[in-house]
Every structure is written in C-alpha cells, then in structure tokens.
C-alpha cells in the first residue's frame, strides 16, 4: 500500500514522490540489518488498512489510518537509537488506557522511556516498545490486536 492522498489527482508529482519515499522507507526497514523482524508487523498493519508513510528527512516510518481526508498517525517505527514500535502522541494521548491494554504483555524494560528533550526521537511518542527477537511474538500479537482496535474504531 502506498501513502497516497485520497483527494489528490492521480499521477501528481507530489503524490508519486510521497509514494516513492514511503516505498523506499519500507524497503529500507525490511532489507536492513534485522529487517526480517519488521516484515510480519508491517504485513499485519497494512492488512489492517494502515498505510505506511515515510519521509525523506527522518528515519521514522509511520503507519496511518485514513478517515476521508484525515490521516491519523497510529503507530511508528524507529531504528535508532534502538528499534522501537512507537505510539504517536497525536493519536494515543487521548487513548492512554487503550494503549496500556495493548502493551500489558511487555515489562518496563521492554518499554523504553519517552524523553521530552528537544531533538529526541521519542519526544512525539506516548509510549514505545522495543522491537527485538525477544519481543517479536508479542509484537505480532499487539499488531493483531491493534488491527481489531482500528477495525472497531472505523465502524
């Protein structure tokens, strides 16, 4: 899936550039060191109707829920300083209890602290979970539950 705007004219240069950057970002995650751990997560999220959005000025890969002309940043992935699945504040700040329920199977050591420092990669996050071989099975379960959550919110 690509991150194209529903109301943008097909074939527009901006749309093509956005799509290409997003596709390149997804490929970068999947083909990079440890990329195999991202594949099942991305597959579940995309099957949920979430669209990847990559930007050329950051290593963060967002997955957005489209609601007409609106796009909601539901989850994000970052690889540095460590690989994490992040819950963007813009979506999760008012859904703290739902996010906590999704993360209940992860201990505190698997949920790196969010820092408010200017320039920090986590400053826009409501919470995050490490992406590792140890957490992968539970992250697949989290993404599957997130799929149900997004579907229920769309109804």
Q: Which features would summarize this protein structure in a list?
A:
single chain; 5 helices; five-stranded antiparallel beta sheet; alpha+beta
Gist?
It contains 5 helices and 5 strands.
Describe this structure in words.
37% of the residues lie in helices and 20% in strands. The protein has 155 residues and is of the alpha+beta class. The protein has one domain (13-154). It starts with 12 loop residues before the first helix and ends with a helix. The protein is globular. Helix 2 packs parallel to helix 5 (136-154). The protein has 5 helices and 5 strands, in the order ααββββααβα. A hairpin with a 6-residue loop joins strand 1 (51-54) and strand 2 (61-67). A 5-stranded antiparallel sheet has the order 1-2-3-4-5.
Q: What does the secondary structure layout of this molecule look like, with pairings?
A:
Elements: H1 13-31, H2 39-47, E1 51-54, E2 61-67, E3 70-78, E4 84-88, H3 89-92, H4 96-102, E5 125-130, H5 136-154
Antiparallel strand pairs: 1-2, 2-3, 3-4, 4-5
Which strand order do you get reading across the main beta sheet? 1-2-3-4-5
Mean pLDDT: 84
Number of strands: 5
Structural class: alpha+beta
- Largest pleated sheet: 5 strands, antiparallel
Distance between the termini: 21 Å
The DSSP helix count reads: 5
Low-confidence parts, pLDDT < 50 over ≥5 residues? 1-12
> Whole-number radius of gyration?
15 Å
- The residue fraction in helices comes out at 25-40%
Give the oligomer, counting copies of the same chain as homo and different chains as hetero: single chain
Instruction: Please indicate the count of domains.
Output: 1
Q: Please trace the helix and strand order, writing H or E for each element.
A: HHEEEEHHEH
Shape: globular
Strand content: 15-25%
């Amino acid at each position: 899936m690509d991150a194209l705007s529903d109301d943008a004219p097909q074939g527009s240069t901006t749309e093509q550039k956005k799509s290409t950057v997003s596709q390149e970002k997804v490929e970068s995650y999947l083909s990079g060191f440890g990329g195999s751990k991202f594949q099942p997560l991305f597959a579940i999220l995309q099957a949920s109707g979430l669209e990847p959005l990559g930007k050329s000025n950051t290593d963060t890969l967002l997955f957005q829920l489209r609601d007409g002309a609106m796009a909601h940043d539901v989850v994000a992935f970052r690889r540095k300083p460590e690989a994490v699945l992040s819950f963007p504040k813009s979506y999760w700040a008012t859904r703290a209890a739902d996010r906590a329920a999704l993360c209940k199977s992860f201990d505190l050591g698997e949920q790196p602290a969010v820092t408010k420092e200017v320039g920090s990669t986590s400053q826009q996050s409501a919470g995050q979970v490490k992406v590792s071989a140890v957490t992968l099975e539970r992250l697949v379960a989290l993404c599957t539950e997130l799929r149900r959550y997004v579907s229920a919110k769309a109804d």
